[in-house]
Write a structure and sequence with these properties.
heterodimer; A: about 375 residues; mainly alpha; 17 helices; B: about 45 residues; elongated
Chain lengths: ~375, ~45
């Protein structure tokens, strides 16, 4: 009896490393199956249309993988056994971005990154101002408006999580802001490529637009890759530039809310910036530098780039599998309307910026 | 709470950074293995 009580009271031990890795296997296999099915559908359709002389537009595997994932997640649902492995999609996204560095020469990174930095600076200023004005019109709580603003201007979910801790925002506000940003990101996946094609945007201009206007990194990468491989590459570079600024925006909000006595003051600002800096950006730059200075042979560069493609294939499957359309109803209509109006305005403004920049800098 | 939000909100700031570091470390390792011919050719 005593031993059974002791057994009940003993704290549960965390699972061993081997067990945790084993728990990832079903979800990883599902990510691969969904992503690879998308690739097979793209190849089969392409072969069929060529063999029959049809002129169908090529639909990238990315869209098929996302649609299959969405169908699974929103019909039968994602069984618990698959969840740990599917949650690794964020790891594959970051690994894919780091390895994608091999497809950029440092000179391209500085040039496009510099133009992106200018556009990102304008986009952030516009987005922050607009989202706060909308928040006031719809009488959202101040910190919820701040979270929506930082999520839509910088880096989606990561920025909201970083800002929530820094400005002592409620868990519920952060959840609502994350749900709004994720659902709007899912809509962007389908609307952005259609608008891009309707306006006959080139791959580079479209990639810059997707990287500037789509909030979450996974969705921005997917929205670019649905358009074309080249557009996906540029979207990642521009989005990475946006991500690199996450610390500055969060620091600004932390100082603002601390000055109003509603958040803790920030001590060492340099340490704060370093903590919030997304480290995968450094990995991307390092691989790009190695590629630029001839560390890899041409076939090896192809291998690294292909490895990046496989990592993104797992990411895109995860984007579909983790998007639950029912979450739209959880958040209430006001934050969603503010988010949606803000996103539409940001999309239109950044489209204007990109078209202007394309004329000036010849993107 | 949306499931994705739960998954992303669970870890503290430190563990989010470590996901980045893991991604960088494993990507660099894979690139090094490719460079020194210790990784099979990757087809797409």
């Amino acid at each position: 009896m005593a031993s059974s009580v002791a057994a009940h009271q003993a704290p549960a031990l965390p699972p061993s490393l081997g067990r945790r890795i084993w728990q990832l296997v079903p979800g990883l296999l599902l990510l691969f199956a969904v992503g690879y099915s998308g690739k097979l559908i793209e190849q089969s359709l392409s072969r069929y249309s060529k063999a029959n002389g049809l002129h169908w537009p090529n639909i990238e595997y990315v869209l098929w993988a996302i649609v299959i994932g969405l169908a699974i997640a929103n019909t039968i649902g994602l069984p618990r056994i698959f969840r740990p492995g599917v949650a690794t999609y964020e790891f594959w996204l970051k690994a894919g971005i780091v390895l994608l560095g091999s497809r950029f020469l440092l000179g391209d990174v500085w040039r496009l990154g510099g133009i992106s930095l200018l556009l990102v600076g304008i986009e952030i200023a516009l987005a922050l101002t607009f989202m706060h004005a909308l928040g006031r019109v719809f009488r959202l709580p101040g910190k919820l408006a701040s979270l929506l603003a930082v999520g839509s201007s910088i880096c989606g979910v990561s920025a909201i999580i970083a800002a929530q801790g820094a400005i002592d925002a409620d868990e519920e506000d952060a959840t609502i802001a994350i749900a709004a940003i994720l659902s709007l990101g899912a809509l962007a996946l389908f609307t952005f490529p259609l608008i891009g094609h309707a306006l006959h945007l080139g791959d580079r201009a479209y990639g810059v637009w997707a990287g500037l206007a789509v909030d979450n990194t996974a969705e921005a990468t997917a929205a670019g890759a649905i358009y074309s491989d080249a557009a996906g590459k540029i979207a990642v570079l521009v989005k990475t530039t946006r991500n690199a600024l996450i610390g500055f925006a969060v620091l600004g909000y932390a100082i603002y809310w601390a000055s109003r006595g509603q958040a803790q003051t920030v001590g060492n600002k340099a340490a704060f910036l370093w903590r919030k800096f997304p480290k995968f950006v450094l990995g991307f730059l390092l691989i790009s530098a190695l590629a630029t200075f001839g560390f890899f042979s041409k076939p090896q560069l192809t291998d690294v780039a292909n490895l990046s493609r496989w990592a993104f294939l797992l990411t895109f499957a995860g984007v579909g599998l983790r998007t639950n359309i029912r979450d739209l109803r959880v958040q209430g209509w006001r934050p969603f309307i503010v988010g949606a109006l803000g996103e539409i305005a940001i999309a239109v403004l950044t489209l204007g910026l990109v078209i202007g920049a394309d004329r000036v800098f010849r993107l | 709470m949306p499931e994705d939000a739960q998954q992303q909100k669970k870890p503290a700031a430190g563990s989010r950074i470590s996901l980045d570091v893991w991604a960088v470390a494993i990507s660099l390792l894979a690139a090094a293995l490719i460079r020194f011919h210790l990784f099979p050719s990757v087809k797409w």
